[in-house]
Amino acid sequence: MIKFPRHPHSGIGDTAIAAPPSRRNLAAVLLACFLGGCAAQGDGAFRAVADQTAPIAPATDVKVGAGGGDEYRIAPGDILQIAVFQVPDFSRDAQVDAAGDIMMPLVGVVAVSARTARDVEADLASRLKAKYLQNPQVSVTVKDAVALRVIVQGAVRSPGVIPLRGNVTLTNVIAQAQGFGELADRSDVLIIRNSEQGRVAAKVDVGAVLSGAAPDPPVRGGDVVVVNDSLARSVFKDAMTIVSGGAAVKFLAQ
Fold first, then answer.
1. Residue 70 belongs to some domain of the structure
2. Are 225 and 171 part of one and the same domain?
3. pLDDT in tens, 100-146
4. In this structure, are residues 190 and 117 in contact, taking their beta carbons and an 8 Å threshold?
5. What is the pLDDT of residue 70?
6. Contact 184/254 with Cβ under 8 angstroms?
7. Is-contact 164 150, C-beta < 8 A?
8. Where are the alpha helices (DSSP H) in 2-109?
């Protein structure tokens, strides 16, 4: 709730709620200022948001095998294709739940998160051999790896799912999304990540990254990148649309 002080002549109490102005109303205000030659000074309506950038927590998915190699380790959301030779009832696709487990017939719940497919094969074979089969031959493959892709949303030209190959940084991912859209605020880009502490986010000023003033942060599998709109650009574009339908002066909003 937003509280306002009581005005002696308005009759409005101190609990009145101010309805947020629509973007189109803001466009009209901006247009009036533009035509009247006014400029924002002092405590203007548009304020720069303080940078909330913090170190980005490491991702929970680990891709380095126990022997120091690059064998993929399973993460929540992955889909595993499991097959047992000559036991078709056991063969199936199993999605890893948020706790990092899968549910399998006969053996029940199996913890698979942060393990390799070979580890899971050995675990399932051991459980089946203990009670049901003499020499089970188990095959486990990662059919769909959530931890090998990044979702890019917001003010980019081609939002969607970006596959990861090798070491990838934030600017690499934005480039693969065909770059910033015309309304993008390059100083307000979020990286949202699942960590051991839960879901965390970090704000990045990509303009500073591109100028060399800030490092280009790495992007990990499972991250979500959100490029926010610039309110000033959005409102200004609406104002120009009011004036001319957005055709004659469209370049001013770019």
1. no
2. yes
3. 999 999 899 999 999 999 999 999 999 999 989 999 999 999 998 87
4. no
5. 53
6. no
7. yes
8. 23-36
Q: Kindly state the tokens that stand for 113.
A: 């998160």
pTM score, whole prediction = 0.52
Q: What is the mean pLDDT of the chain?
A: 73
3-class SS of residue 160:
strand
Domain final residue, candidates 90, 109, 144? 144
Is residue 74 classed as helix, strand or coil in its secondary structure? coil
Give yes or no for residue 69 having a pLDDT over 70.
no
Which residues are within 8 A (CB) of 173 and not within 5 positions of it... i.e. 6 or more apart?
150, 152, 162, 219, 225
* Two structure tokens written together for 100: 């990092």
- The better pLDDT of the pair 227, 34 is held by 227
Residues 6+ apart with CB under 8 A from 234: 23, 183
Q: Which pLDDT tens digit goes with each residue over 188-213?
A: 999 998 877 778 899 999 999 999 99
- Which among 176, 168, 175, 181 has a CA at the least distance from the CA of 216? 168
Domain match, 90 and 164 both? no
Structural domain for 29, as ranges: 20-35+52-60+145-254
Provide the token pair at 117: 């497919």
Q: CA-CA distance, 113 to 194, in Å (whole number)?
A: 13
Q: How many domains does the chain have?
A: 2
Same domain, 132 and 159: no
Whether residues 120 and 219 fall in one domain: no
- pLDDT-derived band of residue 250, with 50, 70 and 90 as boundaries? very low
